[in-house]
Amino acid sequence: MFSNLKKNGKAHKRPALPERVRAYAIGDIHGRADLLEKLLGLIKADARENPQAKPQVIFLGDYVDRGIDSKAVIDLVLDFDLPGAAKTCLKGNHEAMMLDFLGNPNAGPFWFDNGGLATLLSYGVKLGGGTAGKSVAEAHAALLEALPQRHKEFLKGLALNYTLGDYFFVHAGVDPEKPLAKQTEQTMLWIRDEFLENEKPLEKTVVHGHSVVWDPVVTDNHISVDTGAYATGKLTSAVFEGQELRFIST
């Protein structure tokens, strides 16, 4: 549940969803298909508890890299079917790096240094390391060939943000000095300290991943749900209904 939200010692209105909506916001998955499969099962069971509420599932980005099963993660997201549910898939900075490499092999080294090698392997592409390894250019061509068409369409079609009720869902956060309508892609995919350290009110409560926390963090202006799944084994979804907030984790 929300703690009592206060500003300058005074309670203020809690953010809320429209009536008869239950929303699930899933943090950074990073190739952990095993955890995602478990969490989606928990979400399905949770949604069945209130059949009167229309479920919405929002993925906050970073499906790929670091963990070993990025390809399987995207398949799970694409195939996830919760009766009556709306599904929204947001773009993370790791999808941006992967897309950069798909468009230009020169972007490879930066992506590889940030977990991209694990994604290559999940598609059966090995970079360097003996006769079976490939050069960056060869790996680029091999990934383009190995990537299913629906994965290409998925990556290119990811949204940058989503608004529902009093919440603004985004991968990394927002520039607190700019209106939500004026946020840039760079900011929404990469920002950290300037956003996380801001204590001023925002237009809406921002729900995000990107910056790892041991447990979900709830403040007056943002909710952080990236619990470092690829390293901790803990993949988390925030659950919103009316003015209530709780969390489901693997």
Q: Quick check: average pLDDT?
A: 93
Q: What ranges have pLDDT less than 50 throughout 5 or more consecutive residues? A: 1-11
Cα distance spanning the termini: 18 Å
The order of strands across the largest sheet is 5-4-3-11-12
Largest sheet descriptor: 5 strands, mixed
Number of strand segments: 12
In N-to-C order, the SSE pattern is EEEHEHEHHHHEEHHEEEHEE
Structural class: alpha/beta
Radius of gyration: 19 Å
Give the count of helical stretches. Answer: 9
**Strand portion:** 15-25%
Helix percent reads: 25-40%
What does the overall shape look like?
A: globular
Using brief descriptors, characterize the structure shown.
alpha/beta; single chain; 20% strand; 5-stranded mixed sheet; 250 residues; disordered N terminus; 12 strands
Structure description:
With 250 residues, this protein is of the alpha/beta class. It has a domain at 19-160 and 228-249. It has 9 helices and 12 strands. The protein has helices at residues 33-48, 70-79, 93-103, 108-122, 136-146, 149-156, 185-190, 193-196, 229-232, and strands spanning 6-7, 10-11, 21-26, 54-59, 86-89, 161-164, 167-170, 205-208, 217-218, 222-224, 236-241, 244-249. The protein has a 5-stranded mixed sheet with strand order 5-4-3-11-12, covered by helices on one side. A 5-stranded mixed sheet has the order 6-7-8-10-9, with no helix packed on it. The protein has a two-stranded antiparallel ribbon with strand order 1-2. Helix 1 (33-48) packs parallel to helix 2 and helix 3 packs across helix 4. The radius of gyration is 19 Å and the shape is globular. It starts with 5 loop residues before the first strand and ends with a strand. The model is unreliable at 1-11 (pLDDT under 50).
